[in-house]
C-alpha cells in the first residue's frame, strides 16, 4: 500500500528524537513485572486508604459502590483503547505523542503541557502529605528534615535509572497490596463478628442508616445526586490507568507488555476497589461522625475507624506507615511521569531539545530538573503547620476534594484526548484500507467502547461541580477547582494552534504506514520492537 503523508513538522522532530535516543537515549529496562507494579503503585494510594471515607459519607455504601463500578467500566474503555494504540506505536510520552501524530500537533502539545503541570504540582503535595503522616508518631522533629530526606530520596531514585525506579515501585506496590488484602480480610472478620467485641454487623448499616445517602434533595433525586457527586473521586482512584503507556520505549517488548499490563492492571484495581468499598460500607455507617474528622493521618481512614470501634488498636500505625510510603511512591511516580511527558514533548518539538538529554543511566535529567521546579514550595511547612500547607495542595476531607477535583479533571481531559485520538486512529485505518487483524493488539467492541467512554468522561467533566450551580451551595473554591483546568487547556490549545499553524489531519493523511512497516520488519527480522525514537533490541 502506498505510504500516507505524515505531518512534516512531526517527522522532522521524530528523526531528531531518534538520533538523540540512539546516542544518549532512554534504556529499555522495564520488564513485565515492573510495568504491572508501576501501574498498581500509581493507582493505589490516599484515594482508597483515606479518601474512601468521604465517598461513603457522601453517597452511602451502595451509592459509593455504584459510582466505583460505573467509573470502572469507563476506565476499562480507556484501558482498552490505550492498550491498542500503544501496542501499535509504543513511545515515551504515550497518548500525548499519539495525539500529535493522529489528530493535530496542537492537541498533543496542549495535552502534554497540561498533564505535565498537573504532575509537577502534585510532587510537593505528596511530599507534604508524607511529612504530615510522619507527625502521627513524632512531632518534635522539624518537618523540613523529613521533607529534605523525602525529596532527595525520590529525586535520586529517578536519576539512577528506570530499572531502579521500577524495582522501588515493586516494593511500594507490594506493601500496598498486602495492606489492602489485610484490610479486606480484617474488615470481613469484623463484619462476621470475629472482632474482640464479638459484635456481628452483617448488612446492618445498609438498613440503618441505609444503603444510600442523599445530597441537596431528598428521595430518588437526592440519592442520584449523591451518587454522581462520587463519580469524580472514583475517577481519581482509577486516574493513572494510562501510566503504563507513558514509559513507551523504556519497556521491553512494549507491543506485548503494555496492552497486557493495562488490562491486567484494570482488572486488579477494579477488584481491589470494589471489594474495599463494599467491605467499608459493611463495617462503617455513612453517618459515623468520625468520617467527618480531618487529620491527614491514618485516623481518618474508614478502615481504622472500623477497627477502632471493634477494639483493635494496632491498625492505625500499620495503615499510617503504608500510606506514608504510598505518598513517597506517588511523589516519585509524579517525577517519572512528568519527566517522560516533557521528554515526549521535546521529541515532537513542543519543548526545547535540551529535555531529551539523558545521563549514563538513560535518564532525562534536565526534564527531571524542570519537573521538580515547584517542589521547593513544600518547604513552606518549615514556617507553617504541615497539615495547613498540605491542605493548600491537597484535600483532607474538604480540601482533599479540591485537589481531587483539579487533578482528576486534568486527568479526565487526558482521557478525552485518548478516546478522540483512538477514534481518529480507527477512522484512519478504515479510510486507508488497513485491517485491525494486523495490529499487535485488537481491543474488543470498537469503536463503540471508545464512543461510550468518551461520552461518559465528558459528562463527568462537565457536571463535576454541578452542586455549585444549585442555590445555596455555591462556593468559589468548588467552581474553581472543578472547572479551572478547562480554560487552561483551551488557552494552551489555542496558543499552540496559532504557534504551530497546523490543521487537524485528514484521516487519509494520518501516518499509519510507518507503524505497520515497523511491525512487519520486526516479524521478518526477529526483533522485538523498533521505536520511532531509534531504539532496537534483538530477541
Automatic annotation (TrEMBL):
Q: Which GO terms describe its molecular function?
A: amino acid transmembrane transporter activity
Q: Which UniProt keywords apply?
A: Amino-acid transport, Membrane, Transmembrane, Transmembrane helix, Transport
User: Can the keyword Transmembrane helix be found in this entry's annotation?
Assistant: yes
One Gene Ontology cellular component:
membrane
TM region(s), chain numbering: 37-56, 62-81, 102-125, 145-165, 177-195, 226-246, 266-286, 318-343, 363-382, 402-427, 448-466, 478-496
Location comes to: Membrane
| Signal peptide stretch | none
What Pfam families is this protein classified in? Answer: AA_permease (PF00324)
What residue stretches are annotated with the Amino acid permease/ SLC12A domain?
Answer: 34-505
Protein topology in the membrane: Multi-pass membrane protein
Keyword set includes Membrane: yes
Q: Which PANTHER family match?
A: AMINO ACID PERMEASE, AMINO ACID TRANSPORTER (EUROFUNG)-RELATED
The protein depicted here goes by the name Amino acid permease
Query: Which organism is this entry from?
Result: Fusarium albosuccineum
Recall the taxonomic lineage recorded for the source organism: Eukaryota, Fungi, Dikarya, Ascomycota, Pezizomycotina
